[in-house]
Specification:
Blueprint: H1 7-30, H2 35-44, E1 50-51, H3 52-58, H4 63-75, E2 79-82, E3 92-95, H5 97-117, H6 123-144
Antiparallel strand pairs: 1-3, 2-3
Length: 145
């Protein structure tokens, strides 16, 4: 393999990611959230909550950004923070009733928005793309294990 034969794949992967982020972010902003706020709401939805550490591991938000995003969500009354009695070094985050209501409206709305993008793709194409992306992810994961 030529040392540069994978470059077109890298370019297309980056362009695909950028296009997805631009399209998805625009819709999320129409829902009144920033992408990191949506990421937290979506991650906490349908859960009893989780520690700040666990939330950081499950989202795409860096540790340095997470606190500020949580602060803004708390100011909006969408999350609550508590200190579990069994581990007072930890912070437990959960959605408030307002946060649950937002999750129950925003998450399905965003899925419906994304579903429209894939509406012209048949099941075979979607399955093929999913399989190819899984294979690509596995290549990267081999390097981290």
């Amino acid at each position: 393999m030529s040392s540069q034969s994978f470059l077109p794949l890298l370019r297309e992967l980056a362009r695909c990611y950028q296009s997805f982020e631009l399209t998805s972010s625009r819709h999320i902003r129409e829902l009144g959230l920033t992408p990191p706020q949506f990421d937290i709401i979506a991650t906490l939805g349908n859960t009893a909550g989780m520690s700040c550490k666990e939330l950081g591991e499950k989202t795409l938000i860096t540790k340095g950004t997470l606190t500020g995003v949580l602060d803004r969500l708390a100011e909006k009354g969408l999350i609550s923070r508590s200190v579990p009695p069994e581990d007072r070094r930890s912070i437990f985050i959960c959605l408030t009733p307002a946060g649950e209501a937002l999750f129950n409206s925003a998450f399905p709305a965003h899925l419906a928005f994304l579903q429209q993008i894939f509406a012209t793709s048949d099941a075979a194409m979607l399955n093929s793309l999913c399989s190819q992306l899984q294979q690509l992810r596995q290549l990267f994961e081999q390097e981290t294990s």
